[in-house]
Write a structure and sequence with these properties.
28% of the residues lie in helices and 29% in strands. It has 273 residues and is an alpha+beta fold. Bound molecules: zinc ion. Zinc ion binds next to helix 5.
Length: 273
Protein backbone atom coordinates (compact mmCIF):
# COMPACT_ATOMS: atom_id res chain seq x y z
CA UNK A 1 0.00 0.00 0.00
CA UNK A 2 0.91 3.62 -0.48
CA UNK A 3 -0.97 6.88 -0.21
CA UNK A 4 -1.39 9.61 -2.83
CA UNK A 5 -3.02 13.01 -2.35
CA UNK A 6 -3.08 16.33 -4.16
CA UNK A 7 -4.54 19.82 -3.99
CA UNK A 8 -5.05 22.40 -6.75
CA UNK A 9 -3.94 25.10 -6.31
CA UNK A 10 -1.25 24.22 -3.76
CA UNK A 11 -2.21 24.18 -0.09
CA UNK A 12 0.82 22.70 1.61
CA UNK A 13 -0.43 22.80 5.19
CA UNK A 14 -3.64 21.02 4.19
CA UNK A 15 -1.81 18.46 2.07
CA UNK A 16 0.47 17.78 5.03
CA UNK A 17 -2.58 17.03 7.20
CA UNK A 18 -3.99 14.60 4.64
CA UNK A 19 -0.62 12.94 4.07
CA UNK A 20 -0.13 12.39 7.79
CA UNK A 21 -3.38 10.37 7.85
CA UNK A 22 -2.36 8.42 4.74
CA UNK A 23 1.09 7.81 6.18
CA UNK A 24 -0.36 6.20 9.28
CA UNK A 25 -2.92 3.99 7.53
CA UNK A 26 -1.48 3.16 4.13
CA UNK A 27 2.01 4.65 4.08
CA UNK A 28 5.44 4.78 5.63
CA UNK A 29 4.48 5.07 9.30
CA UNK A 30 1.95 2.28 9.05
CA UNK A 31 4.63 0.09 7.49
CA UNK A 32 7.04 0.79 10.36
CA UNK A 33 4.32 0.39 13.00
CA UNK A 34 3.43 -3.14 11.89
CA UNK A 35 4.58 -5.72 14.42
CA UNK A 36 7.26 -7.25 12.24
CA UNK A 37 8.48 -3.98 10.84
CA UNK A 38 9.27 -2.14 14.06
CA UNK A 39 13.00 -2.34 13.57
CA UNK A 40 14.67 0.89 12.54
CA UNK A 41 16.39 -0.96 9.73
CA UNK A 42 13.13 -1.16 7.78
CA UNK A 43 12.49 2.57 7.85
CA UNK A 44 14.97 3.11 5.05
CA UNK A 45 12.58 1.37 2.65
CA UNK A 46 9.88 3.95 3.30
CA UNK A 47 9.76 7.38 1.69
CA UNK A 48 7.86 10.59 1.15
CA UNK A 49 7.72 12.78 -1.94
CA UNK A 50 6.13 15.92 -3.32
CA UNK A 51 5.49 16.95 -6.91
CA UNK A 52 4.22 20.31 -8.09
CA UNK A 53 3.48 22.33 -11.22
CA UNK A 54 4.64 25.94 -11.07
CA UNK A 55 5.10 28.37 -13.99
CA UNK A 56 4.69 25.43 -16.37
CA UNK A 57 7.56 23.57 -14.72
CA UNK A 58 7.24 20.20 -13.01
CA UNK A 59 9.28 20.13 -9.82
CA UNK A 60 9.68 17.63 -7.00
CA UNK A 61 11.25 16.97 -3.64
CA UNK A 62 11.51 13.44 -2.27
CA UNK A 63 13.59 11.36 0.06
CA UNK A 64 13.65 7.68 0.92
CA UNK A 65 13.47 6.78 4.61
CA UNK A 66 11.74 9.97 5.73
CA UNK A 67 8.29 10.46 7.21
CA UNK A 68 6.09 13.47 6.35
CA UNK A 69 7.10 15.53 9.39
CA UNK A 70 10.79 14.85 8.75
CA UNK A 71 10.78 15.81 5.07
CA UNK A 72 8.56 18.82 5.78
CA UNK A 73 11.46 20.58 7.51
CA UNK A 74 13.52 20.34 4.33
CA UNK A 75 10.92 21.36 1.74
CA UNK A 76 11.42 24.43 -0.49
CA UNK A 77 8.11 25.77 0.84
CA UNK A 78 8.36 29.19 -0.83
CA UNK A 79 8.51 27.58 -4.30
CA UNK A 80 5.76 25.11 -3.48
CA UNK A 81 3.30 27.70 -2.19
CA UNK A 82 2.94 29.31 -5.62
CA UNK A 83 2.22 26.02 -7.38
CA UNK A 84 -0.98 25.52 -9.36
CA UNK A 85 -1.00 21.86 -8.33
CA UNK A 86 0.73 20.07 -5.45
CA UNK A 87 0.85 16.30 -4.99
CA UNK A 88 2.21 14.15 -2.17
CA UNK A 89 3.05 10.46 -1.77
CA UNK A 90 3.83 8.27 1.23
CA UNK A 91 5.36 4.90 0.49
CA UNK A 92 4.52 1.52 1.97
CA UNK A 93 7.16 -0.62 0.28
CA UNK A 94 5.77 -3.86 -1.13
CA UNK A 95 9.35 -5.09 -1.39
CA UNK A 96 12.58 -4.13 0.31
CA UNK A 97 13.71 -1.68 -2.34
CA UNK A 98 14.95 1.83 -1.75
CA UNK A 99 13.13 4.76 -3.30
CA UNK A 100 10.52 7.47 -3.02
CA UNK A 101 7.89 8.71 -5.47
CA UNK A 102 7.54 10.55 -7.86
CA UNK A 103 9.34 8.57 -10.56
CA UNK A 104 10.20 9.92 -13.99
CA UNK A 105 10.75 8.62 -17.49
CA UNK A 106 14.21 8.84 -19.11
CA UNK A 107 13.64 12.43 -20.27
CA UNK A 108 12.18 13.65 -17.00
CA UNK A 109 8.95 14.63 -18.75
CA UNK A 110 6.48 12.14 -17.28
CA UNK A 111 6.13 12.00 -13.49
CA UNK A 112 4.13 9.33 -11.72
CA UNK A 113 3.03 8.59 -8.19
CA UNK A 114 1.68 5.07 -7.78
CA UNK A 115 -0.05 2.86 -5.24
CA UNK A 116 -0.11 -0.78 -6.22
CA UNK A 117 1.86 -3.42 -8.05
CA UNK A 118 3.47 -2.60 -11.41
CA UNK A 119 5.49 -5.79 -11.84
CA UNK A 120 3.33 -6.71 -14.86
CA UNK A 121 4.90 -3.86 -16.84
CA UNK A 122 8.12 -4.28 -18.76
CA UNK A 123 8.99 -1.30 -20.94
CA UNK A 124 10.53 -2.26 -24.27
CA UNK A 125 14.08 -1.13 -24.96
CA UNK A 126 16.68 0.05 -22.50
CA UNK A 127 15.93 2.71 -19.91
CA UNK A 128 17.71 4.78 -17.33
CA UNK A 129 16.36 3.53 -14.00
CA UNK A 130 16.82 5.47 -10.80
CA UNK A 131 15.69 2.64 -8.49
CA UNK A 132 14.51 -0.97 -8.48
CA UNK A 133 11.01 0.07 -7.37
CA UNK A 134 8.51 -1.55 -9.75
CA UNK A 135 6.36 1.61 -9.95
CA UNK A 136 9.17 3.35 -11.83
CA UNK A 137 8.50 1.09 -14.81
CA UNK A 138 5.21 2.90 -15.43
CA UNK A 139 6.91 6.19 -16.29
CA UNK A 140 9.27 4.41 -18.70
CA UNK A 141 6.46 2.41 -20.26
CA UNK A 142 4.47 5.56 -20.91
CA UNK A 143 7.33 7.60 -22.37
CA UNK A 144 6.84 6.03 -25.81
CA UNK A 145 3.10 5.57 -25.56
CA UNK A 146 2.47 9.25 -24.88
CA UNK A 147 3.93 10.58 -28.10
CA UNK A 148 4.58 14.25 -28.84
CA UNK A 149 1.37 14.37 -30.85
CA UNK A 150 -0.65 12.80 -28.05
CA UNK A 151 0.77 15.23 -25.48
CA UNK A 152 -0.46 18.22 -27.49
CA UNK A 153 -4.11 17.28 -27.11
CA UNK A 154 -5.75 16.69 -23.71
CA UNK A 155 -8.40 14.39 -25.19
CA UNK A 156 -5.76 12.26 -26.94
CA UNK A 157 -3.79 12.07 -23.70
CA UNK A 158 -6.88 10.98 -21.82
CA UNK A 159 -7.64 8.36 -24.47
CA UNK A 160 -4.08 6.98 -24.24
CA UNK A 161 -4.14 6.87 -20.42
CA UNK A 162 -7.60 5.28 -20.53
CA UNK A 163 -6.31 2.59 -22.89
CA UNK A 164 -3.37 2.01 -20.53
CA UNK A 165 -5.49 1.70 -17.39
CA UNK A 166 -8.11 -0.51 -19.08
CA UNK A 167 -5.44 -3.07 -19.84
CA UNK A 168 -4.11 -3.35 -16.28
CA UNK A 169 -4.37 -6.33 -13.94
CA UNK A 170 -6.48 -6.62 -10.80
CA UNK A 171 -3.59 -5.50 -8.60
CA UNK A 172 -2.18 -2.60 -10.57
CA UNK A 173 -3.80 0.02 -8.34
CA UNK A 174 -3.90 3.80 -8.58
CA UNK A 175 -1.85 6.35 -10.40
CA UNK A 176 -1.40 10.12 -10.41
CA UNK A 177 0.41 11.40 -13.47
CA UNK A 178 1.84 14.71 -14.63
CA UNK A 179 3.25 15.40 -18.09
CA UNK A 180 5.66 18.28 -18.67
CA UNK A 181 4.01 21.08 -20.64
CA UNK A 182 0.47 19.81 -20.00
CA UNK A 183 -1.53 21.97 -17.55
CA UNK A 184 -3.30 19.11 -15.79
CA UNK A 185 -2.98 16.31 -13.27
CA UNK A 186 -4.19 12.89 -14.42
CA UNK A 187 -5.71 10.30 -12.12
CA UNK A 188 -6.07 6.69 -13.25
CA UNK A 189 -7.48 3.85 -11.20
CA UNK A 190 -7.33 0.08 -11.67
CA UNK A 191 -8.33 -2.47 -9.02
CA UNK A 192 -6.04 -2.67 -6.00
CA UNK A 193 -5.30 -5.68 -3.79
CA UNK A 194 -6.24 -3.73 -0.65
CA UNK A 195 -9.23 -1.96 -2.21
CA UNK A 196 -7.71 1.48 -2.64
CA UNK A 197 -9.10 4.03 -5.04
CA UNK A 198 -8.85 7.80 -5.49
CA UNK A 199 -11.56 10.18 -4.33
CA UNK A 200 -12.03 13.77 -5.50
CA UNK A 201 -13.35 16.79 -3.54
CA UNK A 202 -13.96 20.41 -4.45
CA UNK A 203 -14.27 23.79 -2.76
CA UNK A 204 -14.71 27.23 -4.31
CA UNK A 205 -11.45 27.75 -6.22
CA UNK A 206 -9.98 24.35 -5.41
CA UNK A 207 -9.96 20.61 -6.08
CA UNK A 208 -8.41 17.90 -3.89
CA UNK A 209 -7.91 14.16 -4.26
CA UNK A 210 -6.75 11.39 -1.99
CA UNK A 211 -6.31 7.68 -1.62
CA UNK A 212 -9.58 6.28 -0.30
CA UNK A 213 -10.80 2.79 0.54
CA UNK A 214 -13.72 0.62 -0.53
CA UNK A 215 -14.16 -0.27 3.17
CA UNK A 216 -17.11 -2.60 2.51
CA UNK A 217 -14.92 -4.92 0.40
CA UNK A 218 -12.77 -6.01 3.34
CA UNK A 219 -13.58 -9.43 4.78
CA UNK A 220 -13.76 -8.86 8.51
CA UNK A 221 -15.84 -6.35 10.45
CA UNK A 222 -12.68 -5.14 12.18
CA UNK A 223 -11.04 -4.35 8.83
CA UNK A 224 -14.17 -2.67 7.53
CA UNK A 225 -14.29 -0.51 10.65
CA UNK A 226 -10.63 0.38 10.36
CA UNK A 227 -11.00 1.54 6.76
CA UNK A 228 -14.24 3.39 7.39
CA UNK A 229 -12.40 5.26 10.12
CA UNK A 230 -9.59 6.04 7.68
CA UNK A 231 -12.07 7.39 5.10
CA UNK A 232 -13.79 9.46 7.78
CA UNK A 233 -10.51 11.01 8.88
CA UNK A 234 -9.59 12.06 5.35
CA UNK A 235 -13.11 13.39 4.80
CA UNK A 236 -13.06 15.32 8.07
CA UNK A 237 -9.78 17.12 7.36
CA UNK A 238 -10.94 18.15 3.89
CA UNK A 239 -14.44 19.07 5.05
CA UNK A 240 -12.95 21.36 7.69
CA UNK A 241 -11.02 23.08 4.89
CA UNK A 242 -14.26 23.69 2.97
CA UNK A 243 -14.16 20.73 0.59
CA UNK A 244 -17.16 18.59 -0.36
CA UNK A 245 -16.88 15.22 -2.13
CA UNK A 246 -17.31 15.14 -5.92
CA UNK A 247 -16.98 11.38 -6.33
CA UNK A 248 -14.66 8.41 -6.60
CA UNK A 249 -12.70 7.48 -9.71
CA UNK A 250 -14.20 4.22 -10.99
CA UNK A 251 -12.02 1.18 -11.60
CA UNK A 252 -10.25 1.12 -14.97
CA UNK A 253 -11.01 4.74 -15.76
CA UNK A 254 -9.05 7.98 -15.71
CA UNK A 255 -9.68 11.71 -15.64
CA UNK A 256 -7.80 14.98 -15.84
CA UNK A 257 -7.98 17.83 -13.37
CA UNK A 258 -6.85 20.88 -15.30
CA UNK A 259 -4.94 23.69 -13.63
CA UNK A 260 -7.98 25.91 -14.22
CA UNK A 261 -9.95 23.40 -12.16
CA UNK A 262 -12.00 21.59 -14.78
CA UNK A 263 -12.53 17.86 -14.52
CA UNK A 264 -12.21 16.26 -17.94
CA UNK A 265 -13.15 12.63 -18.56
CA UNK A 266 -12.21 10.56 -21.62
CA UNK A 267 -14.82 10.79 -24.38
CA UNK A 268 -17.79 8.50 -23.74
CA UNK A 269 -16.62 7.52 -20.25
CA UNK A 270 -18.02 8.51 -16.87
CA UNK A 271 -15.05 8.07 -14.61
CA UNK A 272 -16.21 9.94 -11.52
CA UNK A 273 -19.04 8.17 -9.71
ZN1 LIG B 1 12.76 5.35 -20.01
Amino acid sequence: MCGIAGILPADLSLLKKVLRILEHYVGSKGYCERGDRHLGAFKRYTGTGFLWISDGKVEFFKEAGLFVDEIYEKLPKGKMKKAKALLGHTRWPSSETLGAHPFFDCKGEIAIMHNGNAKEISPPGSHKYETKVDSERIAHYLEKKLTKKVRQDLNKLLAAIQEFIEGRSDEFGNLALVVKGVPAVFLAVAPHKYHSTLRVWQRPGGIAFSTYKYAELFETMAEQQRWRKFNEKVNAVLRKAGFTPLGTVRDRTCLAITLDLQIVEPKGITSLA
